[in-house]
Amino acid sequence: MKYLRIVPLFIILIVLISGCKTTKVIVPGPAEAEPQHNSLKAFAYLDLNDYAVADMSNQLPKIKTDLKKKVRDLVTEPDIDGLCLIIAGQSSDLIEDLAVEAMLLKPYLIISLVYSGESGHQNATECVEHGIADMMLSEAEFKSAAGDLRIRKLLVPDNLKKTIPQQVIGLNFSAFFPDNPGGQTLSISQGNKTKVTDTEGYIGFISPDPDTIVIETTSGAIILPTENWSVPYKYSILPDHSIIRKSPWVEFRMMPKQISEIPEYDFLCKTDYPATVMINGNAVKQYRTGIFFSTVKLNEGSNRVRATVITPDSLSAFYEGEFIYKKVDRTRKPYPLWIDARSVEPASEMDLLPEDIVRVSFRGSLGQDGYAVVNPGRIRIRCVRENFGDYSIYRADLPLRKLATGGTYNITLGLVAVENPKENKTFEFAVKNGVRVREEYDFPLVRIKNENSRLTYNLGAPRLGGPIRSELGPGVVLKANGKIGRNYRVRLSLTEHGFISQEDVEIMPAETVTPSYYITSMSCGPSRGADVLTIPYPDPVAYEVFPDPDQKRIVVTLFGVQTSSTWVTHRAGLKIIDKITWDQTTPETYKVYVNLTTPDIWGYDLRVDGKRLVLRVKYPPVYDLNNEKPLTGMKIAIEAGHGGSGMGAIGLSGLVEKDINLDLSFKLGELCRSMGAEIVQVRDSDKDMLLLEKRNIAVSSGADMLISIHANAGGRGYLSVGGTSTYWHNPFWAPLAERIYDRLLETGLEEFGVVGSFNYTVTRVSQIPSILVEQAFMTNAGDEEKLADPAFRQLMAEKIYEGIVDYLRQLKE
C-alpha cells in the first residue's frame, strides 16, 4: 500500500452552519482537483497550548500519555467525524502520536490542525504535507466557527481522508524496554522519523508504506512484516521481535472495502476469550478462538460499524470503521453490442486434423444473433444462443473438413442487433488464436523425458491435478496428432487419445518408427513379498493401469500392441493373483486382466524393467489385532499437509493449517507408535517440501499405509460449509477412507462426505493404501473452534487410529 504525498496545497471555503460566515481551511489536493462535494462534519477539539511546559523534552513522555487519554475520551463519543488539535510550536512527533491515537479507534476521523503564529503555520503545513493531518486552519478562523465548548461543525469536502487504516501504526515497546519504557528514542525507516515513547512505551506514526515496518533501536533494527496483521495496527513488541496484542483489544479480521457495492457484509472480529462482545451495540456470540461476527446491512452512503469488547475484569476496547455503500447496477446492457474477450473459445492456438471439429463459443450481449466467420474463405457459421440474466452464450461447431489442409485460419466472432438500433447494428471480435489444419503425418512422434509425466484424458480445467489417466516415465514414445496451446494430443488407438505437456516430451527425428509389437506370452508367479506378473515390453509403447476392485481385478492396457496367440504361464504358490486373462479390445489395444483372489489388497506397482513390464501385487503385512499392541508389524507413513512457506488455509481466527496438520500428525504418530507401529513422519518439521518429494518418501520408506492430514476451507459465510471428510484416489483404498470417516463422525463433527477419485499428488499412489483426511473446515466458526483445541485434535488422532484398526479388522474377515 503506497502513500501518495499530494502537493501543492489549495484553499477550500468552509461554510458555517450559523449563516454566511466562511472559514478558510487548507487541505491537500491535486494540482487539478475535481469538483468537490461538501458535507457537515462534527469536530472534537483539544488545545495543546494548555499543556505547554518549560522543559518539553523531559516532560514529553508524560505529556503524550496524558494527552492521548484525553484524545481517547473525546473520540469515544459517537457522531464525532474529526479531531481538531490547536497547536503552536509543538513537535510533529507529539501531534502525530495524538492523531494516531484517535485513528486507532476511528480510522476515518479527519485530523485538523488549528495554528497560530508563523511557527504554528509552518508546523501545521509540514504535518499536512507529511500525511499526519488532513487539513489546517487559523486559530482565529476556528474560533469564529459555530459550535460549543466541545464540538465545532464545519463543511468539509467528501473523500478528504487519504490515510487508510493500514497506514496507522501504534506500537508498544514496554516489554522491549522493561526497566524504562518511557522516553526511549526510536527511528522509523518509513518517512525517516524519530519517535519518543510515552510513559507506557507507546509510539504512534503514519507509515506511507506499511507492508514492512523497520524500527531502529539502540540494540539494532526490528523488522516487522505486516502481511498477517489485522486492523487496527496496534501491537506490542516482545524482546524476540514477535508481536502480541495487549489487553484489552479488538480487531477487524474481515470487512468490506472502504467503498463497497455490497449491500450487506459479514463483519468478522476477534479479541481475547472470554469477553462480552458487541457489534454496533448488539451482543453476539464469541467462540473460544476469540472470533465473533455479525451480518450488517449497509445503507447507501456512510455506515459506521463498531466492535466493542468488555473483558471479565471490566476493561473495554472498541474499533469503529466507516464504510461507504454505493448502490451500483451491474447489469450489463445489450447495447452497444459487446463480446466478453475472456469467454472466447478457442482460447489457444490449435493444430488439428481435418476430421476434427472446433467448438467456437463466447459470451456477449443478451438476445442477439451470433455468428462466426472463418478466413480465408469467409465461411460464415450461425451460432446457437442460450440466454442468461444479462448475457447470452453463443456456440457453433466448425468442422475442419470444410477447410483446406495445410492452411492457417483465423476466426472472427460477430453479433447482429435483433432490434436493429440506428447505431451499432453489428459488432465483431477477432479471435487472436488461429487454427491450423494438418494431416496426421505432419505431426511428430514425441518421447517422454520426465518422471511422473501426466497423460490426461482432456484439457478440462484442472482441479487438484486435472483429469489424469496415467503417469508415464522417460522413454515412452507417443504419436502426436494435434496440438492445443502447449499440449500435444497423442493418439493411443483408433478410438482413444490423451494430452501431454510439451514440457514433458522431446520431438523425435522424422524417421522414427511408431512403437508397436506382437505379444506372445506372459508369466506370473510368487516372489518375495509379492505375486509378480511379467509382460514383454520390447517397444516403448504407452500403457496405463486401471484399478477395478468391484471385479476383483487390475487392468493393464497396452497401446499399439497385438496378440499373437498369447499364452500365460501361472506358477504354483500364487497368493493374491488368481489368474491372468487378456483381450484384444481394438486392433491396437491390448488389455491384461489381473484377476485377484480378493479386493482387499495391500498395493501394486507396475514398472518398466528393461524389455519387460513387471507388475508386483504386494502380500499383506503380518499383524495381530488381538495383540496388546495391535499395530505391531505395521509401518505407517503420515503426511502433514503443506509446510514452510505453504501455509495452507488460514482460519477465521488466524489458525494456520500447516501447524494443526503437523500437530495432528505427531499426535497420530505417537498414538500409533504406542500401539506397536513403526511411524514415518513424511514432514517432520515446518519446512517446504514438493508434493512428489512427499509421495516418494512415503512409498520408498516401505510403509504399509499412508495417511495424509489436511484441513478444509471454502464456502460463503462463517457457518455455511463445515464438517469432516476423507478422500481416496484409488478405489481399492475406499474402504480405508470409509472406516476412518465413520470414526471421525463420532467426534461430533458434521458430515461432509467420503470423496472418491481425488487427484491429490501425495495420495495418488497404488503401491500402498493411501487416503487423505480433511479434519474439518477452517472457514467454519464452529469447526475452527474445535480444531484450535489440542484436546480435540487428540480425539481426532484417536478416531483415525480406531478407523485404521477397523480397516485392518475388515481385511482379516
Characterization of the model:
The two termini are 63 Å apart. Strands 25, 27, 28, 31, 32, 33, 34, 37, 38, 39 and 40 form an 11-stranded mixed beta sheet that branches. The chain is mostly beta strands and 813 residues long. It contains 9 helices and 55 strands. Mean pLDDT is 92; it is low at 1-24 and 26-34. Helix 1 packs parallel to helix 2, helix 5 crosses helix 9 (790-812) and helix 7 packs across helix 9 (790-812). Helices cover 15% and strands 41% of the residues.
Task: Record the SSE blueprint.
Blueprint: E1 9-15, E2 22-28, E3 38-47, H1 56-76, E4 82-87, H2 92-103, E5 110-115, H3 117-129, E6 135-138, H4 139-143, E7 151-157, E8 168-172, E9 185-188, E10 193-196, E11 202-206, E12 212-217, E13 220-225, E14 233-237, E15 243-244, E16 251-254, E17 259-260, E18 264-270, E19 276-279, E20 282-283, E21 291-297, E22 301-310, E23 316-325, E24 339-345, E25 350-352, E26 357-364, E27 369-375, E28 379-382, E29 384-387, E30 392-399, E31 408-416, E32 426-430, E33 435-437, E34 445-448, E35 453-456, E36 468-472, E37 477-484, E38 487-491, E39 497-501, E40 505-507, E41 517-527, E42 530-536, E43 543-548, E44 553-559, E45 561-570, E46 577-586, E47 589-596, E48 604-609, E49 612-618, E50 635-640, H5 657-674, E51 678-681, H6 691-700, E52 705-712, E53 724-728, H7 734-744, E54 751-755, E55 770-777, H8 781-787, H9 790-812
Parallel strand pairs: 3-4, 4-5, 5-6, 8-14, 17-23, 25-33, 41-45, 50-51, 50-52, 52-55, 53-54
Antiparallel strand pairs: 1-2, 3-7, 8-11, 9-10, 9-12, 12-13, 14-15, 16-18, 18-21, 19-20, 19-22, 22-23, 24-26, 25-37, 26-30, 27-28, 27-31, 29-30, 31-32, 31-33, 34-37, 34-40, 35-36, 37-38, 38-39, 41-42, 42-49, 43-44, 44-47, 46-47, 48-49, 53-55
Helix pairs in contact: 1-2, 5-9, 7-9
